[in-house]
Design a protein that fits this description.
Residues 21-249 form the AB hydrolase-1 domain. The structure is a single chain. This protein has eleven helices and eight strands. It is an alpha/beta fold and 268 residues long. The protein has a single domain, classed as Alpha/Beta hydrolase fold, catalytic domain (Rossmann fold, 3-Layer(aba) Sandwich). α2 crosses α3 (94-105) and α5 (142-153) packs across α7 (164-174). The longest helix has 17 residues, at 250-266.
């Protein structure tokens, strides 16, 4: 499996498809596989690059503090190593925070930006949730951890599908690349230290801000703040789906992304 060494860690990446490069960055407690359900739609038109953030999936990380800026720099160096000069970037949740720092530090590398279920700065409720998610792994096993966090991710409609949540939990328990407790702790603290609210005005590439109307972890107000702060950003609120709409409504999310990307190409 392809890896590059950056900033003292081994960073895993995956490339599929042909066309203009499109980078996908996953969020907290997720690796590149979180994008799997929308991959068939994307790889039919783009060269899709997925990456495991430091400490997640098949990327390594030592037990030291992380920052969102650092994870963005990991990815900037990855792009350099694999010869990608300019790329469309999509980030979900924490991946959206990394995407913001990536474009702010390397505007010449980013052709367009898609921020899914993202924010510029968490409020007190959000920060309390994330702090707890970083602390919990030292006190509960993976099965109980999943049971605690999943209600923040998925909607009642998703929970109403017989066996669906149990199937997800079982998949997570069996997954061979589960993160360490310290990775979840350091990722949570990186999120708590993240704030681009006073720098959004410097993001000048075409930007789509996408959120599910039923998202209770990063509710619509956060996406509204992003769209208002980023010059000429477009906000799209999907009627169905919560924070986990990449799993709940993959076709709808893929369609919104592909339309935004097509508009970038159309407008040159």
């Amino acid at each position: 499996m392809p890896r590059v060494q950056v900033n003292g860690i081994d960073l895993f990446y995956d490339i599929k498809g042909t066309g203009e490069p499109l980078l996908l960055i996953a969020g907290f407690f997720c690796d590149h596989s979180y994008w799997s359900l929308i991959m068939p739609s994307l790889v039919s038109q783009y060269q899709v690059i997925r990456v495991d953030n430091r400490g997640m999936g098949r990327s390594s990380a030592i037990d030291i503090s992380y920052t969102i800026e650092q994870m963005a720099n990991d990815i900037a160096l990855l792009l350099d190593r694999i010869g990608i000069d300019k790329v469309h970037v999509a980030g979900h949740s924490m991946g959206g925070y990394i995407a913001q720092e990536l474009v702010l530090a390397n505007p010449e590398k980013v052709q367009s930006l898609i921020l899914l279920s993202s924010l510029a700065k968490g409020d007190q409720l959000f920060n309390s949730i994330i702090q707890t998610w970083g602390d919990l792994p030292d006190y509960v096993d993976l099965k109980l951890y999943e049971k605690i966090i999943l209600p923040w991710i998925f909607t009642d409609e998703f929970y109403s599908i017989p066996g669906m949540v149990d199937q997800l939990i079982e998949w997570a328990i069996q997954y061979p690349y589960a993160p360490t407790n310290y990775t979840l702790y350091h990722h949570s603290r990186a999120i708590l230290g993240f704030d681009t609210s006073d720098r959004l005005k410097y993001i000048n590439c075409p930007t789509l801000v996408l959120v599910g109307k039923q998202d209770i972890l990063t509710p619509v107000k956060f996406s509204q703040e992003l769209a208002q702060g980023i010059p000429n950003a477009k906000l799209v609120v999907l009627e169905r789906g919560g924070h986990g709409f990449l799993v709940e409504s993959p076709e709808t999310v893929a369609s919104a992304m592909l339309y935004a990307l097509s508009q970038v190409s159309k407008n040159g």
